[in-house]
């Protein structure tokens, strides 16, 4: 299928849908890539997506204009006429929409119902890793010379608070950080308890930003 963000539907003509497992297995066995080539992509690519139980298992990105296929970090020559033949035999038109959820339980309830509908192709599940994020601003000084020094300083404190829950500490080279070189603003992802319980006198804490859990639902038209 062509990517959902391509409003011009540049490669819609190649869309196809195969639900017969025997046909899918046969294509996996018979379709071959050409020679390895340098990694080049075009703006509008085309994806071949293999799903199982409505979950994405594997994806191959095709650049039709370049006659390239991209998979596992490698690029290969690819015969685009294969897509033309499949599109004629197994045509597909699709639509998509996004839906936001408050938590994983709400998504799972929705997902179990939407997958019962014959028109559903598959659902791109939100990533339920962190509850949200906040920022900590540190002055650049001898103690906090660089982001790694701040990470080394923060990590032991955070590990005591989160008690095994996942978190991340990152320095984002955004416009604010690049323009204000006398400080380092770190982004912390994790549970809300971390935001509430982390008391650090050496930094200025920003506001709590709840994570957005957005699923993308793909349907046959």
Number of helices: 6
Order of helices and strands: HEEEEEHEHEEHEHEHEEE
For the largest beta sheet, what order do the strands appear in spatially? 1-5-4-3-2
Beta strands, count: 13
N→C terminal distance:
13 Å
Broad structural category: alpha+beta
Largest sheet: 5 strands, antiparallel
**Rg, please?**
23 Å
Instruction: Estimate the mean pLDDT confidence.
Output: 94
Q: Overall 3D geometry?
A: elongated
Low-confidence stretches: none
Helix content: 25-40%
> Proportion of β residues?
25-35%
Structure overview:
- With 221 residues, this protein is α+β, with helices and mostly antiparallel strands.
- Helices cover 26% and strands 32% of the residues.
- It has helices at residues 21-30, 81-89, 104-114, 147-162, 175-179, 192-197, and strands at residues 36-37, 46-52, 55-63, 68-71, 74-77, 94-101, 120-124, 132-139, 168-171, 183-190, 204-205, 209-210, 213-220.
- A 5-stranded antiparallel beta sheet has the order 1-5-4-3-2, with no helix packed on it. Strands 8, 9, 10, 11 and 12 form a 5-stranded antiparallel beta sheet that branches. A 3-stranded antiparallel beta sheet has the order 6-13-7.
- A hairpin with a 2-residue loop joins β2 and β3.
- The protein is elongated, with a radius of gyration of 23 Å.
What are the main properties of this structure?
221 residues, alpha+beta, five-stranded antiparallel β-sheet, 6 helices, 26% helix, elongated
């Amino acid at each position: 299928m062509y990517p959902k963000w391509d409003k011009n539907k540049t490669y819609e003509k190649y869309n196809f849908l195969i639900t017969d497992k025997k046909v899918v297995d046969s294509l996996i066995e018979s379709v071959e890539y050409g020679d390895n080539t340098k990694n080049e992509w075009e703006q509008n690519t085309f994806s071949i997506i293999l799903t199982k139980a409505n979950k994405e298992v594997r994806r191959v990105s095709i650049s039709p204009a370049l006659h390239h296929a991209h998979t596992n970090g490698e690029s290969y020559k690819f015969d685009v006429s294969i897509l033309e033949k499949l599109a004629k035999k197994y045509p597909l038109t699709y639509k998509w929409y996004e839906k936001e959820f408050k938590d994983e339980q709400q998504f799972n309830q929705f997902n179990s119902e939407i997958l019962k509908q014959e028109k559903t192709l598959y659902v791109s599940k939100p990533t339920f890793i962190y509850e949200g994020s906040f920022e900590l601003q540190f002055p650049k000084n001898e103690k906090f010379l660089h982001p790694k020094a701040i990470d080394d300083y923060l990590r032991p404190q955070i590990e005591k608070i989160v008690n095994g829950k996942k978190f991340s500490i990152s320095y984002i080279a955004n416009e604010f950080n690049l323009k204000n070189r006398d400080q380092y603003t770190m982004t912390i992802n994790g549970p809300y308890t971390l935001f509430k319980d982390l008391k650090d006198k050496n930094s200025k804490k920003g506001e709590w930003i709840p994570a957005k859990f957005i699923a993308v639902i793909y349907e046959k038209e």
